[in-house]
């Protein structure tokens, strides 16, 4: 499964796997793909350094990348406390009432409430980059679009290509103008932040818009046949995230959540602002329903919503309150119905790709 981009990056297969779990990212790289570690969950530079040290020890010298979440425009002097102060009390009360309605206990005394989603605050993302640029990462990706120009320049000075996610051809064109090297066309089906255009339509539009830049297709890809379709549309690889959530290497915080993912169908997700304040595809739960309810106060913009619901999410996860328990995941969740090792999933991808190519050869040859 070779493309010009995979050869340029020195990987065997044009499979790019985004994941918040170091063990999954390392396994992807060892399998011949390109593991990309998501940094948004790290709240301190030391935590990221610890996991990048681990990646270095478990990737056999093969390439891997890092994904951050930061705005394109540089904003200085805004602290987490400043942002917290902007959250209306009515929204805090609504969160408390929703938890009380479902009988969600407080965190045990002395037990921390878990990580807060602060990685999309620029000052946090920049400390992550200060750490990451000391490691031999081979790709920097930004989930919110083009990073600030000084970040792009810094990566390029180190010989690191920069990728950015796009949900429309117009968005992708702005990336090209900003000096981005690789565009990830993220379709409506994808988990996490998405636009409103499906992958089948979006991918060729983005390919045309940014030619000759390489494009990776994301959203609704969980099989080798779907990867072959992405390459047929002009992509130079697939960007897969959701499919790794039910692998054995994934460090999911809850067995109950893993069970929900394994049981979910492709119609059991929703594009909601409940988690971050921006539309993000995730499991539909009574928590997303509450925040999408027109009778409620509505969600806050990013990053206010993420800070508002951080403690609530920690309590829901800690006590495994199943009606409220969810996670970002794409519509491909309907095909994720068994726990397997990353290598097993990867082998299925490559076999499926080979079957699809053979079938197309037969069609093209009239067989």
TrEMBL record:
<keyword id="KW-0288">FMN</keyword>
<dbReference type="InterPro" id="IPR004136">
    <property type="entry name" value="NMO"/>
</dbReference>
<protein>
    <submittedName>
        <fullName>Nitronate monooxygenase family protein</fullName>
    </submittedName>
</protein>
<keyword id="KW-0285">Flavoprotein</keyword>
<keyword id="KW-0560">Oxidoreductase</keyword>
<dbReference type="InterPro" id="IPR013785">
    <property type="entry name" value="Aldolase_TIM"/>
</dbReference>
<dbReference type="Pfam" id="PF03060">
    <property type="entry name" value="NMO"/>
</dbReference>
<dbReference type="GO" id="GO:0004497">
    <property type="term" value="F:monooxygenase activity"/>
</dbReference>
<keyword id="KW-0503">Monooxygenase</keyword>
């Amino acid at each position: 499964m070779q493309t010009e981009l995979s050869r340029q990056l020195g990987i065997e297969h044009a499979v790019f796997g985004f994941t918040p779990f170091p063990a999954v990212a390392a396994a992807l790289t060892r399998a011949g793909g390109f593991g990309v570690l998501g940094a948004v969950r790290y709240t301190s530079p030391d935590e990221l350094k610890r996991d990048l040290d681990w990646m270095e020890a478990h990737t056999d010298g093969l390439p891997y990348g890092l994904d951050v979440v930061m705005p394109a425009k540089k904003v200085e002097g805004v602290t987490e406390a400043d942002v917290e102060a902007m959250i209306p009390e009515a929204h805090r009360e609504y969160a408390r009432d929703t938890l009380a309605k479902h009988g969600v206990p407080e965190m045990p005394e002395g037990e921390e409430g878990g990580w807060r989603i602060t990685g999309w605050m620029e000052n946090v993302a920049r400390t992550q980059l200060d750490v990451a640029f000391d490691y031999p990462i081979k790709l920097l990706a930004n989930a919110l679009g083009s990073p600030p120009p000084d970040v792009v320049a810094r990566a390029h000075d180190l010989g690191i290509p920069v990728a950015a996610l796009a949900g429309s051809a117009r968005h992708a064109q702005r990336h090209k103008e900003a000096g981005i090297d690789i565009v990830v066309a993220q379709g409506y089906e994808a988990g996490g932040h998405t636009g409103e255009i499906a992958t089948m339509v979006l991918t060729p539009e983005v390919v045309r818009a940014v030619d000759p830049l390489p494009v990776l297709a994301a959203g609704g890809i969980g099989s080798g046949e779907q990867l072959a379709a992405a390459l047929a549309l002009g992509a130079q690889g697939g960007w897969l995230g959701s499919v790794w959530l039910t692998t054995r290497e994934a460090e999911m915080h809850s067995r109950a959540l893993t069970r929900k993912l394994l049981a979910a169908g492709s119609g059991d997700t929703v594009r909601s602002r409940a988690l971050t304040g921006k539309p993000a595809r995730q499991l539909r739960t009574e928590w997303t329903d509450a925040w999408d309810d027109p009778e409620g106060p509505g969600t806050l913009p990013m990053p206010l919503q993420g800070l508002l619901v951080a403690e609530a999410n920690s309590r829901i996860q800690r006590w495994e309150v199943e009606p409220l328990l969810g996670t970002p995941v794409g519509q491909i969740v309907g095909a994720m119905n068994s726990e397997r090792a990353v290598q097993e999933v990867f082998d299925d991808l490559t076999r499926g790709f080979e079957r699809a190519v053979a079938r197309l050869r037969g069609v093209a040859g009239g067989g």
